[in-house]
TrEMBL record:
SUPFAM superfamilies: SAM/Pointed domain
A Pfam family: SAM_1
PROSITE patterns according to UniProt: SAM_DOMAIN
GO molecular function, one term: chromatin binding
Protein name (database record): Sterile alpha motif domain containing 13
GO biological process: one example: negative regulation of DNA-templated transcription
Gene3D superfamilies recorded: Transcription Factor, Ets-1
Domain SAM: 44-92
GO CC annotations, alphabetized: nucleus
Length: 115
């Protein structure tokens, strides 16, 4: 019976996750959420953008996106120059933010929307 208890405990967390998903299940697939954010960055609010960069390890820089009111649509329109100069960020983090985050998000968005 000890092994049965183990199985039961490992299944329970999955069940609760499933129930939560069902409650939010009214969202269609296009708007499905990842970490509480819409999958398509174009649908992100300013807070989603800020949380994205916080999660990515740019705690300090994330607030700049808040101050400049950068939402997902704005993020997708940002040029390298915008990121490097428009946010008053240090050059090092700004380069990483653009090359490893903003640019890939833009590329991915274009791919997904040209299908």
């Amino acid at each position: 019976s000890a092994s049965w208890v183990l199985v039961k405990t490992s299944i329970l967390p999955m069940l609760t996750v499933d129930m939560e998903n069902k409650e939010n299940g009214s969202l269609d697939v296009k708007n499905s959420l990842e970490n509480g954010r819409p999958l398509d960055p174009a649908d992100w609010a300013v807070t989603d953008v800020v949380n994205y960069f916080r999660t990515a390890g740019f705690e300090e820089q994330a607030s700049a996106f808040q101050e400049q009111e950068i939402d997902g649509k704005s993020l997708l329109l940002m040029t390298r120059n915008d990121v490097l100069t428009g946010l008053s960020l240090k050059l090092g983090p700004a380069l990483k933010i653009y090359e490893y985050h903003v640019k890939p998000l833009q590329t991915q968005h274009l791919k997904n929307n040209s299908l």
